[in-house]
Amino acid sequence: MTGTRLALALAASLTALCAAQAQAPKQGGTVHVVVQPEPPMLMQGLNQNGPTNMVAGNIYESLLRYDEKLQPQPSLAKSWEISADAKVYTFKLQEGVTWHDGKPFTADDVVFSLDKFLREVHPRWRPIANGQVDKIEKVDDLTVRITLKQPFGPLILSQEVAGAPMIPKHIYDGTDYRANPANNTPIGTGPFKLKEWKKGSYIHLVKNEAYWQKGKPHLDEVYWQIIPDAAARAVAYETGKIDVLTGGSVDVYDVARLSKLPNTCVTTKGWEMFAPHAWVTPNIAKGGPLASKQFRQGMMFAIDREFGKDVVWGGLGKLPTGPISSKTKFYSADVPKYGYDVAKAKELIKASGYKGEPIKLLALPYGEVWSRWAEAIKQNLTDAGVNVAIETTDVPGWTQKASNGDFDLTFNYLYQLGDPATGVARNYISTNIVKGNPFGNQGAYVNPEVDKLFADAAVAPTDAARQELYTKVQKLLADEVPVLWQLEMDFPTIYRCNVKNLVSSAIGVNDGFKDAWKE
Amino acid sequence: MNLPQFLAGRLVKGILVLFAIALLNFFLIRAAPGDPAQVLAGEAGAADAQLLEQLRQRFGLNEPITTQLWLYLKGYMTFDLGFSYRQQQPVLTLVLDRLPATLLLTGAAFVISLGLGVVMGALAARRAGGWRDSIITALALVFYATPLFWIALMSQILFSLKLGLVPNVGYETIGANYTGLARMLDIGHHLILPALTLGLFFTALYARMMRASMLEVAGADFVKTARAKGLSPAIVSRRHVARNAILPVVTLAGLQAGQLVGGAVLTETVFAWPGIGRLMFDALVQRDYSVLLGVFFISSAMVVGFNILTDLIYRLADPRIEAA
User: Fold this and answer.
1) One-character DSSP codes across A445-475
2) Contact A93, A143 (CB under 8 A)
3) Nearest CB to B48: which of A123, A228, A235?
4) Per-residue pLDDT at B9 exceeds 50
5) From the CB of residue A109, how many other CB atoms can be counted at a distance below 10 Å?
6) Mean pLDDT of all residues belonging to chain A
7) How many Cβ pairs closer than 8 A exist between chain A and B?
8) Measured between beta carbons, which residues in chain A are less than 8 angstroms from residue B279?
């Protein structure tokens, strides 16, 4: 009896062992991934275009990584300490890290990157460096200290690789950054090195044999293929040319079909840091009906957002309740809600004094699905008695019109960047009504109370204090509807199931393939 | 007019045309909304005034428009097509990088369509109204009327996905590292679908034109004479009818040849062919002025060049033209 039990236990543990072994990463292999459109360059300090980030996240690294709950994890910083007054951040760096050209990575590089290079060229780091940081200094070769002017909670979330990539001082210091020939041969500390970029065809990355994390990366090569047509990308996946279709690279209506293919896995994870939030911006600065809160609320009730999500976006995503994504810190559901209610919409629109003035909806030229969405919303608004016409343009045309306030209504979607202070406030505060920036407060919404709440919340000393302020501002904004929130977007990554550990952090494939392996 | 005189005249005219085109292009693309700095900043999802200012300076957009125009024209006069700050490379490098792929694709399509079209048209005209004629005319009509992108996608689904015969995208097997003959065969394998797709429309045009032209010439007096002196129908058709019927086809071929560089945007896009058409299209949506102007210039130079070449071929095919 005992013998049998023992045998069973042994068998069980053997099976477990086998399973564990099967899950131990296999070394070697090549993965083919789609990147679209072709990145303009791979020097991540100078360019943070979506495709650039996807590829360059393999080449560059930052001090920290973030798990899917947005908790900071070590990367080039081995550990970090925050002083009791929340103003001094001390980062201890990993030992034995080298750049791709063999030079050692030290505190000098960190100080150069954060204090000089990125402060000069990076539109997301610059406001933090200039507004919040008192000084960035080297303590010793492997220690860096950042002293803040006042507590600034979002700092700990600002060290994602696209937000603050580490730049080699020995290559860039004292040069004209944007004209440096090294921009074509990016040098980072990451798990992969750039081997070849055949413009129009592919970007070839190879394993960094001297990578500081021993035993990684597991893959030998990654090819990023440039295939401009979405339908052709889907066929390329089906015929086996491609292993990974990154988020947003196939049409929404292909997602369901491709997910059912054999050996195909789908995940919507790896977008927690970005949490793309989509909305329709009314141009409040233009005055007229769009400046009326009642009219904007009426439009909220008029739009069948559920339909947009289920039919236009194939069921992907979630309806937002207000300015902050439910995937982000400091979200609060305690806000006025808007269901689909045409009667109520008509009532509010009538009460606003709307007399049928023509309103143009500037569609976002990002592909078919956005055009369909514009049509659906136009229909909804027409049903509620709003006189809407769709206006179309190309991407530069949209950027210009949206930047210069040359629209009535327009779509937009933006990354939330993990913290409302960096990713959300920018769309609602009056100091960010800037011509030329398509990602500021384009509708020119002005409310001193909102300005103050966001300003206070950014520098409030504790998370609890910040939450209280953000809860207030969400309630206020949901009532004011400065923009018509439509969707918390999901961009599923479709990949062959034998590619393991593809998405292991809050920025998904953008974090590089250091942990990925192929069975 | 003798040949050197003729060539000199055409060259001078060609250079004037190119200058006018270059000038027109410069103002045309600046009339489009947006600029490269704004696009670059827009794509990054974050921007501020300082970034835009840095980029504009880099792109040379802060200079007065007359200075920009002067720098552009001066560069072109010394065969310097400028620099793309977006791609951090000289425009000429970018263009030359893409040129072989495009020439291969459009050249293959050109040969396929011209060969197939002329043969189909001649065959159809031999027995006009017969079953062969009906089939060819019907086919030509279908090729002519079907949108290119539809054929492109459907052929991918049928030949790549369902039948697994040919790859659906790309120029070669990425990561295979073939060399020599193996590489050429691999590229050829990738070439089949895009070249056929691109060639179909012109095949239809050539076939229809050749057929109509053959029928017209077949009724001419000199053809009756040839028949009367006892020549076989095959020889009459080949030597007398076809040679005279080919002139309009040469005109059309000259037109198609002029498009060898710029005319394959759609095909290159759908088949992910790394050619100049895509370089141009990307530059257009990114407002990468220097690249766009460079591609425009090279394509217009090609058109002018092929027009001169077409005129030369006319003179060979029909010596009477020299007198005119």
Assistant:
1) ---HHHHHHHHHHHH-SSHHHHHHHHHHHHH
2) yes
3) A123
4) yes
5) 27
6) 92
7) 166
8) 199-200
What is the predicted pLDDT for the residue at A211?
A: 97
How far is the C-alpha of A125 from the C-alpha of A40, rounded, in Å? 20
* C-alpha span between B308 and B297 (Å, rounded): 17
A106 Cα to chain B: minimum distance (Å) = 28
Compute the average pLDDT of residues B225-240.
Answer: 87
Does the beta carbon of B53 lie under 8 angstroms from any beta carbon of chain A? no
- SS3 (DSSP) at A329: coil
Please tell me the distance in Å from B104's CA to the nearest CA on chain A: 15
- The predicted pLDDT at position B236 comes to 87
Counting residues of chain A whose pLDDT is more than 90, the rounded percentage is 82
Is the distance from CB of A411 to CB of A363 less than 8 angstroms? Answer: yes
Give the model confidence (pLDDT) of B161-201 as tens digits: 999 999 999 999 998 889 999 999 999 999 999 999 999 98
> How confident is the model at residue A5, as a pLDDT?
44
Maximum pairwise Cα distance, chain A: 88
Distance from the Cα of B267 to chain A's closest Cα (Å) equals: 10
**Predicted confidence (pLDDT) per residue in A194-226, tens digit:** 999 999 999 999 999 999 999 999 999 999 999
pLDDT of amino acid B322: 60
Whole-angstrom distance, CA of residue A320 vs CA of residue A325 = 7
DSSP of A215-278: T----SEEEEE----HHHHHHHHHTTS-SEE-TTSS-HHHHHHHHTSTTEEEE--S-TTT--EE
Instruction: Pull the structure tokens for residue A375.
Output: 């049509």
Q: How far is Cα B320 from Cα B324, in angstroms, rounded to an integer? A: 7
Q: Which of B40, B151, B169, B281 to mutate to test the interface with A (most CBs of A within 10 A)?
A: B169
Tokens of A186: 């990016």
- The per-residue pLDDT for range A369-402, each reduced to its tens digit, is 999 999 999 999 999 999 999 999 988 889 889 8
According to DSSP, the residues that pair with A66 across neighbouring strands are A72
- Using a 10 angstrom Cβ sphere, with 0-12 exposed, 13-18 middle and 19 or more buried, the burial of residue B147 is exposed
For chain B, how far is it from start to end, CA to CA, in angstroms? 8
Partners of A221 in the beta sheet? A30, A206
Phi, psi of B69 (to 5 degrees): -65, -45
Give the mean pLDDT of B231-255: 85
Smallest CA–CA distance from B157 into chain A, residue: A235
**E strands in A363-477:** 388-391, 409-414
Burial of A282 (0-12, 13-18, 19+ CB in 10 A): buried
| Chain A touched by B86 (CB under 8 Å) | yes
B30 contacts in chain A (CB < 8 Å): none
Q: Are A208 and A217 in contact (CB under 8 A)?
A: yes
A436 contacts A290 by C-beta, under 8 angstroms: no
In angstroms, the CA B116 to CA B100 distance is 24
pTM assigned to the model: 0.89
Q: Determine the 3-state secondary structure of A193 from DSSP.
A: strand
Q: What is the pLDDT of residues A26-69, one digit of tens each?
A: 999 999 999 988 998 999 999 888 899 999 999 999 999 999 99
Asked if B49 and A436 count as a contact pair (C-beta separation under 8 A), the reply is yes
Q: Is residue A170 within 8 Å of residue A103, measured between CB atoms?
A: yes
Tell me chain A's radius of gyration from C-alpha atoms: 25
How many angstroms separate the CA atoms of A348 and A101, rounded? 64
Q: Which ipTM score applies to this complex?
A: 0.87
pLDDT at A480 over 60: yes
Burial of A344 (0-12, 13-18, 19+ CB in 10 A): middle
Q: Report CB contact under 8 Å: B45, A414.
A: yes
- Residues in chain B within 8 Å Cβ distance of A231: 153, 156, 270
